[in-house]
Amino acid sequence: MVKDAIQDAVLEWYDKYYNVKPLLSKKKPQLTLDTSLSTGKYPWARETGDDILNDYFKRFNVESSAFDLLLYWPYEKGFLPNVLRPLSQKVPEISPKPLTVRMLVESAKAGRWIFK
Asked: What is the pTM assigned to this prediction?
């Protein structure tokens, strides 16, 4: 695939399958290279992010061994607050890194996940 064709293909794939109209919204969000799947106004849940990335790695033949889902969707505290947990089960407060469409495009061009 030509490099610009890869960008177009990734944008088209994400827009068609995952850039959906949020509930109670009149239109779907504007898709740009800086659209983040893990942060911002419309972040995906970890399970959905995992499904999206698995589809992406297969569809665009991107080698995924360097990809770490927890950088973009870290563990959350959940219902039980840390103050009530034993020390061994405390969940650290970690902000997710943005995982953008641009990162998907650049990794698809490289044929492997290139971000840490």
From this structure: 0.86
